[in-house]
Design goal:
mainly alpha, Growth Hormone, Chain: A, globular
Amino acid sequence: MTVATPSPSTRPSPVVAADPSPGVSRRIVVALALAVLAYSLMQTLLVPALPVFADGFGLDAAGSGWVLTSYLLSGAVAAPILGSLGDRFGHRRLLVVSLVVFAVGGVVCALAPGFGVLLAGRVLQGASTATFPLALAIVRRHLPAAGQRTAVGWLSGTIGLGAGVALVLGGLIVQLLSWPWLFILGTGLGLLALLLVMRWVPASHRGAGTRTDWVGGALLVVGLLALLLAVSQGGKWGWTSPVTLLLAVVAAAGIAGLVLVELRVAQPLVDMRVLARPVLLLTNGLTLFLGFVPYLFYVGLPVLLESGTGAGHGLDVATAGLVMLPSAVLVFLGGRMAPALATRMRTPVVAALSMALMGLGAAGAALAPSSLIAVIGSFALLGLGQGVGFAVVAELVSQLAPRSEVASAVAVNGVLRTVGSALGAPITALFLVDAAVGAGEFAALFAFAALVSMVGVVLAGFIRPRA
C-alpha cells in the first residue's frame, strides 16, 4: 500500500528566531525604511525637472510627463508580481532583486543618451514599488507582535516623507546641478538600502518549486497596463476617443480573465478569495481615496504656488517645494501616530479620523486659496490625515491577509492607491482648464477633495476588522 506524501510547502520559513532582540528589530526596520524611502523618493524627485526634460529632449509637457507615467505603470505591474513571488520564494530575496533592478535602472537613466533610454531606465526603477509590500511581509514574519504595528507606522510614514522631501530636493538639484544627479542620488540611496538589507534583514528558506502562474501574470500585466493608461491619459486623448475606449475594454477583459483564472489555479498569483473578504474590499476601497485626494493637491498646488497670473502666488520651484514640505513631514508623523491611536480607538474610528483630517485640510484650502499661510496649514493637516490613513490601511491588510500572502495582498492594495493617484491628474485638469486660473477654480478643486474625503469617512465606518 502506497502512502501519499503531502506536497512540500512553498511558503518561506524564517531562518532566525521569531522574536529578535530590540536592537536587531530596529536594524531590520531601518534597512526596510531606507528601501521604501528610495522608492518613494523617486516618485516625485523628477517633478521639478519636467520642464528641463522637455527642453533637453525636445518634448512637450505631455511627452516629458512619461518620465513619471512610465514609473507608475511599471510599479503597478511589478509590485503584485514581485510580492506574490516573495510570498512563495522568500521576501528578502525578492526585495534584493527589486533593489538591484532599481539601481541598474538609475544608472541607465543617469547615463541615458536619449529619451527612449531614459524611459527604459524608469521602467526598471519601477520595480522598487515592490519594496513596500515586501517590507511589510518581512515585518509580519520576523518582528515580534508587539513591534509590528510600530514598524508599519514607520514604513507607512516614510512613503509620504520621501515623496514630499523629494519635491524640495528635486528643485534644489535642478537649480544647482543637472538632472543626472537626480538619478545619482536615488541610485546611491538604493545601493545603501541594498547593503543594509543584505546585512541586517534575515533571509527565508526557499520552498519547493511549484508551477508559476504565467497566465495569471500575463492577464495581470495586460489588465493593469490598459487600465492605468486609460485612466492617466484619458484626459489628454479624450475619454470617448477610440484609443481610450479600446483600452477600457482591454482592461475589463484582462481583469475579468484574471479573476476567472485565479479562482481555478492551485497556486494563484493573486488570491481572489482572500481579496473578496468584505473587510479587505472596504479597506481597498478606502485606499483609492487615500491615493486620489492627496494627488489633487500634488497636481494642483504647484500650479497655484508657481503661477504668476490669476490666483497664483508666483513662487519659484524650490520655494514651492518648501511650502509643501510641512505636509510631507506630517505624513511621516501621522504614520508614527497611527499605532498609538489604534491602541486607544477602534480601527474604523482611526480610519474615519484619517479621512476627516484630510477633509478638513482640503476644506481649509478651499476657503482661502489666495492665502499662503492658509494653504500651508491646510495642506499640512491633509498630510497628517494621509499619514494616519496609510498606516491604518497597511496594518489592516497585513493583519487580515494570511501570513503566506501578505506581500501579495499589500501589493494589490498599493495598486489601488496607484489607480487613485492616476485619477488625480485628469480630474485636476477638469478644474484647472485655463492658463490664468482664478481663485474660484482652485476653491472648487479643493472643495471637491473635501467632499470626496467625507465620502471616505462614511466608507471607513463600515469597516469591521473581524468580518
